[in-house]
């Protein structure tokens, strides 16, 4: 069995699809924990999501203290809840879901909440270079959880300086790929996301003993979009 890796055209098509997704009115939006520690970009993300037509806003329930202890980029739900309230989101429209340590856990807990509430149209939001992997993760999980008819859209913001230095602390200091904290310009963070997109889409027999929650390949993403947008 050959290792899967997307070609340049697939990556270009996939990035355009998630960055240009016409997110319509949704019943709930989950805002993924930040992939970098940057207050200004967090604020831009939160300011963007409140412009979308959503009934409920869902936050990862990790506290600021837990995030510090786990060495995560996310600052905790308390600050993001405050930013949503500052952007005129009513408290009753903010839902704090169970604490989730990584993207796969966030996605699974969000889908459990979706199933519990019977929502049919939802959205996910994150930084622009992170949103593709988030989407690939949730597509795989909706198949696993028998929720394939769920309509999931993507929301992000634009205009990160190419030379902006970003820092991504990683869970417990090391990922399942063996890499540590990511520090550097945007191009470095994009490269790290690409590594994860490739690694986490492999079948388990090609994982080399690594343990992760598989996500969809890009071809599977487009199959999902064709179904979603009919």
Order of adjacent strands in the largest pleated sheet: 3-2-1-4-5
How many helices does DSSP assign? 8
Summing up helix and strand content along with how strands pair, one would put the structural category as: alpha/beta
- Unreliable segments (pLDDT under 50, ≥5 consecutive)? none
What is the distance, rounded to the nearest whole angstrom, between the alpha carbons of the first and last residues? Answer: 33 Å
Count the E strands.
7
Strand content: 5-15%
| Shape estimate | globular
What is the percent of helical residues? 40-55%
Provide the residue-averaged pLDDT: 92
**SSE succession:** HEHEHHEHEHEEEHH
Rg of Cα set: 17 Å
Largest sheet: 5 strands, parallel
Describe the protein's architecture and organization:
- The protein has 230 residues and is α/β, with parallel strands linked by helices.
- The protein has 8 helices and 7 strands.
- Strand 4, helix 6 and strand 5 form a beta-alpha-beta unit.
- Helix 5 crosses helix 6 and helix 6 packs across helix 8.
- It is globular, with a radius of gyration of 17 Å.
- The two termini are 33 Å apart.
- The relative contact order is 0.18.
- The mean pLDDT is 92.
